[in-house]
Design brief:
It contains seven helices and twelve strands. The protein has about 220 residues and is of the alpha/beta class. The strands form two sheets. Strands 1, 2, 3, 4, 5, 6, 7, 8, 11 and 12 form a ten-stranded mixed sheet that branches. Strands 9-10 form a two-stranded antiparallel ribbon. Strand 6, helix 5 and strand 7 form a beta-alpha-beta unit.
Length: about 220
């Protein structure tokens, strides 16, 4: 296929039961269980009111900055529950999508869209209550000429996203869990979540112990007056 102008078939898609399980867990805890090595970058912020976890299989799009032709095609072929992840080069001078495209995505049952680039019609999109993350907002609209790629490997701020990988996002940001690591990371995150619930209960009843802080300071040679 031609590099820069191709549409591939997605070969795999994370299971719905796994998606549902991750939707109950904070993205920060998943990140901790991935050694804090993966992140979509601090610029990707929710345009909507992110009160819950966005979770779904990635449908990836790579597009030329300022052009959304391939994103339009992705909207047409996406399956319900997909998260469309767009690498638009991080460009903030031209919006990649706006209110009309979000309305299409919502009607088609797409779970959410993540754009490493800019969007527009932010006020209207907030009122639509559709999960959308972007790096910025601008009024200047896109072109529709290409080139671009659909369902190829992309990367955002060093985080690699393969088609069908698990995409997670909440108020803390965006994270991708590799397809073949989802069960391992799910089990680890559940253990961490359980441990945090125990810690929160101890804080509530006043039984939490913080001796480890002093021990850590002393082990590092900290001097006290």
């Amino acid at each position: 296929m031609t590099i820069g102008f191709c549409v591939r078939k997605r070969q795999r898609r994370v299971e719905q039961s796994t998606i549902d399980a991750f939707r109950e867990l904070p993205v920060a805890n998943v990140s901790d269980c991935m050694s804090r090595m993966y992140a979509g970058g601090a610029r990707l912020r929710p345009i909507h009111d992110a009160q819950s976890v966005l979770a779904g299989p990635a449908l990836t799009v790579r597009t030329r900055p300022g052009d959304n032709l391939m994103l339009h095609h992705a909207l047409d072929i996406a399956e319900p529950g997909d998260v469309i992840v767009v690498d638009a080069g991080g460009d903030l001078t031209t919006a990649i999508l706006g209110e009309i495209m979000v309305a299409i995505a919502k009607k088609r049952g797409i779970a959410g869209i993540i754009v490493n680039g800019a969007i527009r019609d932010a006020h209207e999109i907030r009122r639509m209550d559709f999960p959308l993350y972007a790096a910025g907002v601008t009024h200047r609209g896109p072109y529709k000429d290409g080139p671009g790629e659909v369902n190829t490997t992309i990367a955002i701020d060093g985080m690699v996203i393969e088609p069908g990988d698990l995409v997670l996002a909440d108020g803390d940001g965006v994270l991708t869990v590799p397809f073949d690591q989802t069960e391992t990371i799910l089990a680890a995150t559940r253990r961490k979540q359980d441990a945090e619930q125990v810690e929160m209960a101890k804080i509530a009843d006043g039984s939490v112990e913080r001796g480890w802080v002093m021990e850590s300071l002393q082990s590092r040679g900290c001097e006290f007056e």
